[in-house]
DNA sequence: CGCGATTTGTGCACGTCTTCACAAGCGCCT
DNA sequence: AGGCGCTTGTGAAGACGTGCACAAATCGCG
């Protein structure tokens, strides 16, 4: 289903405009801009040019300007962007004006680390409850929170307005946990389990798989190694030892 | 991400073909296919159709076929793909035929969890060494590995062929660690610190930021909430409570 | 008050990714 | 052997994202 934009319907009365529907690629970059802006604010900057903010966020300046223009931004030509204003803008668009409650399910190896990760607290979220299915883990206290049994999820969800569920269970349990989260009204899930979740329409799932990230890097390693074995067109002097098909590890080959 | 491709290095005769340079989007999906294929192999499947594999991997079947065709695939029309053969193909392309050594820097909250995460070991990697800058942490044993001081990195890198560096330090230390990794020849970095790393050309960096993932979800939550408040086209004016349990009927499909 | 320096916002062209739709190929059954 | 149903591989078209280049807008200064 294509989303239709309302070109002229932005004239909503009030200071807070209706949410524009941003391109996904832009949404994915806004948090990075926000982090860079907070850094800039702490170092005393009141305004920042698109070039400066772009390099702080690790992107191209044209892309950044286009992204910010999507949210009807308020930059000043010849000057730049007001840092504080832009922070407010982005935080509003991302829905960070309220501190959203997060439920974390699975307090194993990774769950422990996530429960103690202060990046959540400092960037707009509050871990409201920890859950696990293992009775031996229920009752344990982690970072000031007591682990509850997953069966208590409905009751806790009724008390706290859980906005986001984080799944840090083994893959085998992830789908059932997702179903239970959806059942209590959670519509956003961050999944660390290496499996595909199926959820009804209207529920957003984002997946983080650490091994996949490494495998992508491995591909590039593999490709770089195979390139150095081939004679390059520019005649670089990097011809390593040609070990035939049994490729030895290209150790510290790149020396800039 | 800043790689340039070498034109003309294609059709190379021989048993092991030269690496085709795949689209990044395809590379990012191959690990997911691989995981699904391993599941299928364990459940006894010998062949699988593109439709079946696609649904197991959570993608569209046309996309999957195009992805696999990129690597000169070996499907059989009317039958499907040979599971074992496809696993070998993908593992070769991803460079997983050798078990790559990973150096993990920063054994704080997150680093501890990563050191104990068995998904690395089971999916083609070996954590070869742990490092930290804090003398109080040096010497500690985690999952059978002793934490070394970051200053020992050059010596360890000379012994083990470190292929990938994982940074799990605070943001303030990440850039220096990255520089040191690059200095000892590491050309692939997985960065968990919330900051932008600058590295020379030829070094790949992938970033995982847990708070950013939550913020992206927060945006969609915010948008969904604002949509339910507005009367949709032909709208049934059901006013859902914030965090309500009712599933509204007019939810837009959100690309994940 | 006007001019030049600077920086934003954006039209446009280009490249990448996705999706559809269908011909080509394969195995099975008669 | 031949036909039929099923599945892959791919051309083409459309959607999406990116980057250039420049007009429009703003500030500071003489």
From TrEMBL, chains A, B:
Source species, domain of life: Bacteria
Residues annotated for NAD(+) binding in this entry: 106-111
Ranges where the CoA-binding domain occurs: 95-196
GO cellular component annotations of the record: cytoplasm
DNA-binding region listed in the record: 32-71
Record localization: Cytoplasm
A family per Pfam: Put_DNA-bind_N
SUPFAM superfamilies on file: NAD(P)-binding Rossmann-fold domains, Winged helix' DNA-binding domain
Record GO biological process: negative regulation of DNA-templated transcription; response to redox state
Keyword Secreted: no
Main localization category: cytoplasm
UniProt-recorded Gene Ontology molecular function terms: DNA binding; DNA-binding transcription factor activity
Keyword set, alphabetical order: Cytoplasm, DNA-binding, NAD, Repressor, Transcription, Transcription regulation
Gene3D superfamilies associated with the record: NAD(P)-binding Rossmann-like Domain, Winged helix-like DNA-binding domain superfamily/Winged helix DNA-binding domain
Quaternary state and interactors: Homodimer.
Family that this chain belongs to: Belongs to the transcriptional regulatory Rex family.
PANTHER family: REDOX-SENSING TRANSCRIPTIONAL REPRESSOR REX, REDOX-SENSING TRANSCRIPTIONAL REPRESSOR REX 1
HAMAP family from the UniProt entry: Rex
Role noted for this protein: Modulates transcription in response to changes in cellular NADH/NAD(+) redox state.
Protein name: Redox-sensing transcriptional repressor Rex
Species name: Micromonospora rosaria
């Amino acid at each position: 289903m294509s989303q239709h934009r309302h070109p002229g319907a932005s004239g909503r009365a009030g200071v807070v405009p209706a949410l524009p529907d941003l391109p996904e690629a832009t949404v994915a970059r806004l948090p990075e801009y926000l982090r860079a802006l907070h850094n800039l604010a702490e170092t005393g900057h009141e305004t920042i040019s698109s070039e400066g903010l772009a390099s702080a966020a690790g992107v191209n300046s044209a892309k950044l300007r286009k992204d910010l223009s999507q949210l009807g931004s308020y930059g000043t030509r010849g000057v730049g962007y007001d840092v504080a204003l832009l922070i407010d803008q982005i935080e509003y668009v991302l829905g960070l004006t309220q501190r959203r409650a997060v439920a974390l399910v699975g307090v194993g190896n990774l769950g422990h680390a996530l429960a103690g990760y202060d990046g959540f607290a400092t960037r707009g979220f509050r871990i409201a409850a920890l859950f696990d299915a293992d009775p031996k883990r229920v009752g344990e206290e982690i970072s000031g929170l007591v682990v509850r049994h997953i069966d208590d999820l409905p009751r806790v969800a009724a008390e706290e307005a859980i906005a986001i569920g984080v799944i840090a269970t083994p893959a085998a349990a992830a789908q059932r946990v997702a179903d239970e989260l959806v059942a209590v009204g959670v519509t956003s899930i961050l999944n660390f389990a290496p499996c595909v979740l199926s959820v009804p329409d209207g529920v957003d799932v984002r997946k983080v798989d650490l091994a996949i990230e490494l495998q992508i890097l491995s591909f590039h390693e593999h490709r770089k190694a195979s390139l150095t074995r081939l004679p390059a067109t520019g005649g670089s002097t990097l011809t390593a030892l040609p070990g035939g098909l049994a490729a030895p590890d290209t150790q510290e080959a790149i020396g800039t």
